[in-house]
Amino acid sequence: MNKEILRAYFIAGPQDFPGETIDEAKLKISRIIQSGVTAFQFRDKGTVYQNDYQRIKLAQDLREIAQQAKVTFIMNDAVQLSILTQADGLHIGQDDEQLYKAREMVGNEMIIGLSVRNEQELLLAQDSIADYLGIGPIYPTQSKSDASESIGLVKLSNMLNKNNLPIVGIGGIDLAKIPELSKTAIDGVAIISLLTKAKQPNEVVNVILKHFLLE
Ligand code: TZP
Ligand code: MG
């Protein structure tokens, strides 16, 4: 897997635009996808759709927008929808579909990312078939209601000493945190609110890309 896709990794779904319609959320997500991010993860949590078709259509449209913008498209949780949209990747959590079962379902081409929340999960993940890991929440976050305790920078650095997989950091990351994070061994940052709330997403993305340079 090319680690470069993890540098500026945008995550969103309609739930991240409270009070807005699905179409309004789609438009805002599309603009951010086109702002220079390296990956987009469609994370769809608890949105009430009129029917299944509406959800599939949203996923397909965002997949297409990402493709046109040459942005890696990753589906969160939904294995079947990752196959249907021909996603570049699938991201799963510790409580989701088992890694090996997901691999069996999506085939060998698709990137699989796994969330890890602590050192124990990180160590177990080292010998797994995951292509990359998302470590977090690093800082307290407002965007995930069931987020576990934040790890903090010191613990994160210790964890990274025991890792040899591509890593994206996640959780509570704002612009002030980018310099300290870029000094650790993570390959990039995964963010929701910093981008969904940005007036100029491309300026945020430029700061991130400048700090997480290519090797
Ligand atoms: N997983 C761990 S923290 C988090 C997820 C999905 C939310 C990150 O959102 P934000 O707004 O960048 O803190
Ligand atoms: Mg999940």
UniProtKB/TrEMBL annotation:
SUPFAM superfamilies: Thiamin phosphate synthase. Its cofactor is Mg(2+). 4-amino-2-methyl-5-(diphosphooxymethyl)pyrimidine binds at residues 41-45, 76, 115, 144. Pathway: Cofactor biosynthesis; thiamine diphosphate biosynthesis; thiamine phosphate from 4-amino-2-methyl-5-diphosphomethylpyrimidine and 4-methyl-5-(2-phosphoethyl)-thiazole: step 1/1. GO terms for molecular function: magnesium ion binding; thiamine-phosphate diphosphorylase activity. GO terms for biological process: thiamine biosynthetic process; thiamine diphosphate biosynthetic process. Binds 1 Mg(2+) ion per subunit. The keyword Methyltransferase does not apply. It catalyses: 4-methyl-5-(2-phosphooxyethyl)-thiazole + 4-amino-2-methyl-5-(diphosphooxymethyl)pyrimidine + H(+) = thiamine phosphate + diphosphate; 2-(2-carboxy-4-methylthiazol-5-yl)ethyl phosphate + 4-amino-2-methyl-5-(diphosphooxymethyl)pyrimidine + 2 H(+) = thiamine phosphate + CO2 + diphosphate; 2-[(2R,5Z)-2-carboxy-4-methylthiazol-5(2H)-ylidene]ethyl phosphate + 4-amino-2-methyl-5-(diphosphooxymethyl)pyrimidine + 2 H(+) = thiamine phosphate + CO2 + diphosphate. It holds the Pfam family TMP-TENI. Its EC number is 2.5.1.3. It is an enzyme of class 2 (transferase). Residues 9-193 form the Thiamine phosphate synthase/TenI domain. 2-[(2R,5Z)-2-carboxy-4-methylthiazol-5(2H)-ylidene]ethyl phosphate binds at residues 141-143, 172, 192-193. GO terms for cellular component: cytoplasm. PANTHER family: THIAMINE-PHOSPHATE PYROPHOSPHORYLASE, THIAMINE-PHOSPHATE SYNTHASE. Belongs to the thiamine-phosphate synthase family. Condenses 4-methyl-5-(beta-hydroxyethyl)thiazole monophosphate (THZ-P) and 2-methyl-4-amino-5-hydroxymethyl pyrimidine pyrophosphate (HMP-PP) to form thiamine monophosphate (TMP). This is Thiamine-phosphate synthase. It comes from Lactovum miscens. The gene is thiE.
